[in-house]
Write a structure and sequence with these properties.
Elements (H helix, E strand, L loop, with lengths): L2 H114 L3 E10 L9 H14 L6 E6 L7 H21 L8 E5 L12 H7 L1 E9 L19 E2 L1
Parallel strand pairs: 2-3
Antiparallel strand pairs: 1-4, 1-5, 2-4
Length: 256
Amino acid sequence: MQPNILRSYKLLVLGLGVLVIATAGCATKKYVQNSVQEGVQPLQVGLKNEDQKTAQNAQQIRDVDRRAESGIADAQNAASQANQAATTADQHAQAAHQVAEQGLTAANTAQDMVNNIDNYQASQHTTVLFRLDQSVLTTSDKQNLDQLIQQVKGLKHYAIQVQGYTDTTGPKQLNLRLSEQRAQAVVRYLTLNGEIPLVKIYSLGYGEATPAQSNRTRKGRQQNRRVDVTVMVPQMPGQPTSQSAQAEPSPGAVTQ
């Protein structure tokens, strides 16, 4: 073989080898690229899925936070309402306690009134004086009785004692009838002119009994020819005892 032909052959073989190597390299590079891409794609999908899960978790956390905040607000509102209700209930309880105490006090007062309803005491008093052997009311006597009538009209529970008396002049039986006539004259004026119910009045003639003054003097006998008119009222709880019955009334005047 000639040297030129041999050289050409070697060059041809060398070129074929380089071509094979190049072709194999290209194939290998493509294979590697395909392999990398195949490996990257699942990784990208996984990362995308993880991002979605992270976003979902974040949203869920935000939802939980909102629900928790809403729950806390509702709980605070419920606690505030419960506190207000407790305060209102306490106020109602205090008011009920006060009403109960007032009711108990009223009941005790009513019971005291019932217990003392028969314990009468003198409230007003007047004395009507008469002339010798007379049982006729004078203008002055009527004016005194009118004052007593006005005071009685403001009362609800009361009784009126009318007690007639005489001096020792004349027989006792005549004086007893005269004392009754004097008492009846006062009762008649109280019922007819004062419109006081007769059931409220108790009258009796005592004749010469219980003289106000001594019958030995003219002035004393004048004071004994009298009718004592006393208004009696029930003693209320805490009410002081009237001193009017103990004090000696002035003749012809209304006393309280």
